Amino acid sequence: MKILAVDTALGACSVAVLSDKxxxxxxxxIMDRGHAEALAPMVQRAMQDAGLSFADLERLxxxxxxxxxxxQRVGLAFMRGLRLALKLPLIGLTTLETMARxxxxxxxxxxxxALHDAKRGEVYAGLYARGSTLLDAALxxxxxxxxxxxxxxxxCSGLLALxxxxxxxxxxxxxxxxxxxxxxxxxxxxALWVAKLGLLAIESSEAPRPLYLRPPxxxxxxxxx
Length: 225
Known about the structure:
It is a single chain. The protein has six helices and ten strands. The chain is α/β, with parallel strands linked by helices and about 220 residues long. It is globular and about 50 Å long.
């Protein structure tokens, strides 16, 4: 199965094209902004590198968030447009699950958690085992997230692999609670893994929606009578 996957939700813009387990093309650029301008040319180059036309694709995949408000919408809007134009299934994957799976694969740990700095003393956090979700993506203070990880894995053996921009702080607190963990350098999702996970996901007739764990700061003024 040939799949095109993209990620623009956090601090990078990445594209990957796979044919089953074979990587046909993969591009990734670290960037805090400018995803909207970079994505379409990057997809075009990735498809050229893969030697495919868009008509050759059989599935699409994209990260849904949590992430930056603009970044996650860029990738979703682009891929939802391709979904309609190509009439292909579009798989949505969270940034946290993607990073956690990257971490477990890198370390061979049975459990993976992604914790991304959401500012204001809070993190986006999620906990996963191979093939299952142990704690759904949520927004909470770092201390609460670390305690939730420890509680969820109480009595479980094996390392916890940590990813995300808050992984180092999580690692230190988790060890202080008596847990066994390893911190990775993974700080953003990669479309290569979005594609790999997208190949394994169950198709849905519904288009994926953005995952917002925090409401936008800007609000429309209330309508007056």
